[in-house]
Amino acid sequence: MDGVRQGTETAESFTAAAWDRIKPIMAEIERLPLLERLSDGTLPPEVFRHYILQDAIYLKHYARCLAIVAAKAPDNAQVLRFLGSAQKAITVEQGLHAGFLTQFGISSADVTAAEPSPACFAYTNFLLATAYHSSYAVALSAVLPCFWIYWHVGEGIKSKPAIEGNVFQAWINTYGDPQFAAGAREVIALTDIAARAASATERQQMSDAFARASQYEWMFWDSAWRLEKWPV
């Protein structure tokens, strides 16, 4: 994964600078054992089951965050554009979950009964709090890393030679899929539009929200690898 600024408008854009800021985080994400083992098909099934259950919990809350962000958009054009982009990504991910839940023997009752891990709980609450209490531009910056980092990771893994019989190939294909990429590019573009109208103080808040959400992305994958549970 080469860390190219996929979808940014110019080298001077807000999103280009935000991506530069998280380079150290991305370096850590790219070497996560969960992603390395998913890529070569050797990820233990119990780790993937834990991850996909947590991801199902996350996606439920993330979809609500996206709706709140859309409601804060400054005009109808951005509302519709953002909702369309978000729908592309959510639809793709929901299809992926449905397939893997069946493949790994996870029932709807299992999903309903699943409790968020500490990392999942912290991340979703950060997103919900930011979406509710911050401006459109800041909230948009907080939800962007999920789109962009998954796209970047998926493209990076997909560029490697495919491993025959990799049971996780559908995951790789999903996040390297043009439909998911299109949704990510749209949200990147909308974030740059919002940044151009923001004050210097708000742009700093946007950058901070983007960086914090990126840290949570690392924490989410790392916690799944460790089969994280509540310690007490």
Structure notes:
By secondary structure, the protein is an all-alpha fold. Helices cover 76% and strands 0% of the residues. The chain has eleven helices and no strands. Helix 4 runs parallel beside helix 7 (118-133). Mean pLDDT is 90; it is low at 1-5 and 7-11.
Short structural summary:
The protein has 232 residues and is an all-alpha fold. 76% of the residues lie in helices and 0% in strands. It has helices at residues 14-21, 23-30, 33-40, 45-72, 76-103, 108-113, 118-133, 136-158, 169-175, 178-196, 200-225.
Defining traits:
disordered N terminus, Aminopyrimidine aminohydrolase, 232 residues, single chain, hydrolase, mainly alpha, Thiaminase-2/PQQC, EC 3.5.99.2, Thiamine_Salvage_TenA
- The rounded distance between the terminal residues' Cα atoms is 38 Å
**Overall number of strands:** 0
Largest sheet: none
Instruction: Tell me the strand percentage band.
Output: under 5%
Order of helices and strands: HHHHHHHHHHH
Helix content: over 70%
With helices defined by DSSP (H or I, 4 residues minimum), what is the helix count?
11
InterPro entries: Haem_Oase-like_multi-hlx, Thiaminase-2/PQQC, Thiaminase_II, Thiamine_Salvage_TenA
Organism: Rhizobium mayense
Catalytic activity: 4-amino-5-aminomethyl-2-methylpyrimidine + H2O = 4-amino-5-hydroxymethyl-2-methylpyrimidine + NH4(+); thiamine + H2O = 5-(2-hydroxyethyl)-4-methylthiazole + 4-amino-5-hydroxymethyl-2-methylpyrimidine + H(+)
Keywords: Hydrolase, Thiamine biosynthesis
